[in-house]
Amino acid sequence: MRSLSFDVVGEPLSIKGFTTTRWGITELVPGQAGPWTLDLQLYMTERAAYRFNLTSGTPRLFVQAGEAGATPVPASITASQDVAASWLDGEHRVLEVDMPLAIQAWMEAYLAHQGEAPEEGRKKKRKGAGRAREAEA
């Protein structure tokens, strides 16, 4: 588990005469120095998602920040896009930010120590399973 500190800032955004606020994360650093601090914990079941994130062009961290449409209140942080997608499905606001190099190195060490997620290949059916058998006459 690693503690990460950051700030959440909003900037006004105007699109076709409609004004809203675009929220973002700034000053993300390891430690507990910022206005917001969350603990990033890695889970064995998310290893494939971590590898996918690390091999992308720009690895990201995702912060669950309360309900969509309300003022952001950071509650959780993850490096898994799968977890972030489930938060979005639950109509939560998700903010994303570039992953610091120190966190990338920590995740690489975690994956090297725990091993990569096993490939989920197709399971072979036993011979004749799922097929209609010929009736004996």
Percent range for helical residues?
Answer: 10-25%
How can the largest sheet be summarized?
3 strands, antiparallel
* Outline: globular
SSE order, as H and E? EEEHEEHEH
User: What is the rounded distance between the termini?
Assistant: 67 Å
Low-pLDDT ranges = none
Structural overview:
By secondary structure, this protein is α+β, with helices and mostly antiparallel strands. The protein is built from 3 helices and 6 strands; from the N terminus they run βββαββαβα. Strands 2-1-3 form a 3-stranded antiparallel β-sheet, with no helix packed on it. Strands 5-4-6 form a 3-stranded antiparallel β-sheet, with helices on one face. Helix 1 (47-54) packs across helix 3. It is globular.
Q: Can you give me a brief rundown of this structure?
A:
The chain has 137 residues and is an alpha+beta fold. The protein is built from three helices and six strands. It is globular.
Which terms summarize this structure?
three-stranded antiparallel β-sheet; 137 residues; 3 helices; globular; alpha+beta
